[in-house]
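Course assignment 3, question 2. Fill in each field.
Student: A.L.
Task: Predict the tertiary structure for the chain below.
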Amino acid sequence: MADFDQRDQKVETQYNADTLTINHSVPPEVIDDLRNTLHLKDKVISRLLHTLDEKAVALEDRESKLRDMAQQYTEIEARLAKRDETDSLAKRAKEKLDEGDLEGAEALLNQSLEQNLKQITERKKAAAADAFELAKIRELHLDYRGALPFYEQAVELAPDDSLYLNDLGVLLHTLGETDQAITFYNQALAIDLKVLGDQHPNVAIRYNNLGSAWQGKGDVEQAITFFKKALPILQSKLGDDHPNTKTVRDNIETLKKKR
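Answer field:
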């Protein structure tokens, strides 16, 4: 079944801080594409390749995993760039990420998180953002269990943030905690329905995630119900030819055959 946009053969990658030299673990054209489309520095690409080596990601999975990690990396940088100008630790964390220094960025964000927690009444939202980004960085390490407490902390600090609730659900779903994932998906859906209305693309994402979770539990009818709720929103907002629309449509057709 097709995957919706959403977190052991060892192949060594040669790299250093200044020059990127790769073997056949990832095709050179993929590296060039990441440079040109996401404007990633070689230092950053080297760091991501190093993680693939550390975690012994299978050769056939490396290209897709690298692309996912690179996209997430740029999204983290973009969010950090939007932080308040007075947030010096976040700015320094972004500078570390620009140089491919995940550990340095984590250290600074952990320091920022600790400081913000001390001023919880004033900085609660910022502390939640720190925890959320730390969860995302743990995912860049492919350390999903390590990401869990940071997602949980983000949700505890900002329980009305549907993004945090949804992404905690996604992680729990990945970890096989499907019932818990459904709980958080439903909470995210309720907030988005209230704040955004029933035709917003984010609502379609929540419906899709619920469909995937129920599919994972083996409940075909429940899964189809939620996918069918997502489909018309995606068709209306994104069009019939959008990949997300096609994926949900394919999911429905595949599940119908299992009835």
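Instructor remarks: Residues 7-19 have pLDDT under 50 and may be disordered. The radius of gyration is 19 Å.
Grade: pending
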